[in-house]
Design brief:
Largest sheet of chain A: 7 strands, mixed
CATH topology of the largest domain in chain A: Quinone Oxidoreductase, Chain A, domain 1
Distance between the termini of chain A: 18 Å
CATH class of the largest domain in chain A: Alpha Beta
Shape of chain A: globular
Number of domains of chain A: 2
Oligomer: homodimer
């Protein structure tokens, strides 16, 4: 039997319909009927070959929500009908130190991405969530709380965990002054999580209107980062900074905002930053760090927390036929804050 | 009564003889007959006005060893004849959070430097260790173990504590693989301390001959940082990197060497670094940090450790009359590894 999907076939043309042969369900596998899939900037970069030539055709999508359709003989954690999610990873070695510590995103042998990755166990290339069906090992399938808005839960699987993981790793707690730099798919989740953790949340942005938007999402305060008086007023005052800016930028004005011994964590900019001032780190023993998505265990903790606190993403629903328009709008940062594909639309041939 | 000293009188001319009126000994003060003073790169930068115009005449020197000559009425920690040291700080507010936690180098109100600083309590400008006498509050005076080579202990007060503090702060322990980047006044102390802490010490240098020198100092291994095969062989393997390079440089090849979750700490480069690759931090949750000298409590711990492990600096003794030649040689990195002034030479008028 085949799976309906949308794929990129080269780096220039838009995405279009595609058919994939369904993969066999092994003993530890869970087969999922996909209902919703969030659209991440990584999807665009991969589809367009920005990160090197991918294995075309590419079926992107790693913010997957669906219901269990079938389980392999040895599956114990899921049953048919369960509401489940799949994020950026579908396999890892399970033998290295990071895997043994539940941080599979740092697997020493390299995790298998949900799409455009070589499937070391089952052969072939992985295909993602712009599709009506996926088969994934149960260890990489998440339980999604039934009480939250299911379609708006999709972006939790990447944008959510990418911001949750560093907030937890650097022990953000009630009363901490936390700055979220940049308001997009990642930043808006950072604001919601930090607020729900009890922090005093400051949206740090170049845009006054984004500042107002952030207040709607729960931010307590806004710092306009182009205003030197505001930067001065907040100098050496933050317990943690979550930097979601996805492009090259000057981190020095932000490092100035940190308290002694505190950390700014990058989650967006994987390219070279502008020159970091060594003195800015030395004079108050500050840290500049980075963090990559999150492990399966902490992804489940995040989803459970979202169930308890009724947290989901702010989304704009689209049909799969509008994916190329969505890509164009995302490249202009024109979305609040994540597009989610209604996978039912795959049937509107 | 007056104190003999050597001072810089402007940014162009060499240092020369100077006379200072001795400051009054207050109840908590310790008066010290200086015997030895190490020569730090900061002395040159300050004397020459590289960091802004100083308060000429400047008497540099913040690696001071001497014996207590006199104590104020309320002094309890020291008695006449004690072997003592003074480092980079002679006062701090003693009220802020960092002061209360024994990290006066991060005093929120700014510590008073041993030279060229406004003396907030007693007025005037502070004068450093290129001199036969100094008066310092007892809280900023250190006990120096009598069993170590006294003259070679002087550089412990700055080069020593600057490397000791980050090694302790980031919990370097027996069995850790620690890289010391750069072999100079700071780097050679980093090698000695990390080795004495039980670490597997790798000297990271561009120079094969410095590598050999580092082995003499206790390094277990040498990594030539211009050799891409060696960099590759050590990728993701270090528990801590102590980066003592004092000038702008590319930190990315070094960040590549760190294990997941580990830190490279800058202690030398207070200027802008070359562009840091964000991905290099994100992909394995690495940290780039900085550290400034060390607090009084940990300086005492370091000196006690040096007494127990018989650790001192490798030095070249000079008479004060040769200070300008020493500066010239330091600017060419021509010293193994610290000049120390024999203060008796001040009498050779």
């Amino acid at each position: 039997m085949n799976t309906k999907a949308y794929a990129a076939f080269n780096d220039a043309d838009p995405l279009g319909p595609h058919t994939i042969k369904r993969r066999h369900i092994h003993a530890n596998d869970v087969a999922i009927d996909i209902e919703y899939c969030g659209v991440c900037h990584s999807d665009i970069h991969t589809a367009k070959g920005d990160w090197g030539r991918p294995n075309y055709p590419v079926v992107p999508g790693h913010e997957i929500i669906g219901r269990v359709k079938e389980v392999g003989a040895d599956v114990t954690k899921f049953k048919v009908g369960d509401l489940v999610g799949v994020g950026c990873m579908v396999e890892s070695c399970k033998e290295c130190d990071p895997c043994n510590h539940g941080i599979e995103q740092y697997c020493e042998n390299g995790f298998t991405g949900t799409y455009n990755s070589k499937n070391s166990k089952h052969g072939g290339i992985t295909y993602g969530g712009y599709s009506d069906y996926i088969v994934v090992e149960e260890d990489f399938v998440l339980n999604v709380p039934e009480n939250i808005d299911v379609k708006a839960a999709a972006p939790l699987l990447c944008a959510g965990i990418t911001t949750w993981s560093p907030l937890r790793h650097w022990n953000v707690k009630a009363g901490d002054k936390v700055g979220v730099i940049g308001l997009g798919g990642l930043g808006h989740m950072g604001v919601k999580f930090a607020k729900a953790m009890g922090a005093h949340v400051v949206m740090i942005t170049t845009s006054a209107s984004k500042g107002e938007d952030a207040k709607q999402l729960g931010a307590d305060e806004v710092l306009i980062s182009t205003d030197s008086d505001q930067l001065k007023a907040h100098k050496n005052s933050f317990d943690f900074l979550l930097n979601t800016i996805p492009v090259k930028h000057d981190v020095n004005p932000y490092l100035n905002l940190l308290k002694l011994d505190k950390t700014m964590c990058l989650v967006g900019a994987i390219e070279p930053l502008e020159a970091v001032d060594g003195g800015n780190l030395i004079m108050k023993r500050k840290n500049l760090a980075g963090s990559l998505i999150g492990g399966i265990k902490e992804t489940q903790e995040m989803l459970d927390f979202c169930g308890e606190h009724n947290i989901v993403s702010d989304i704009e629903m689209i049909d799969i036929q509008n994916i190329n328009t969505a890509y164009e709008r995302m490249m202009k940062s024109d979305v609040k804050y994540r597009f989610v594909i209604d996978i039912k639309s795959l049937n509107n041939a």
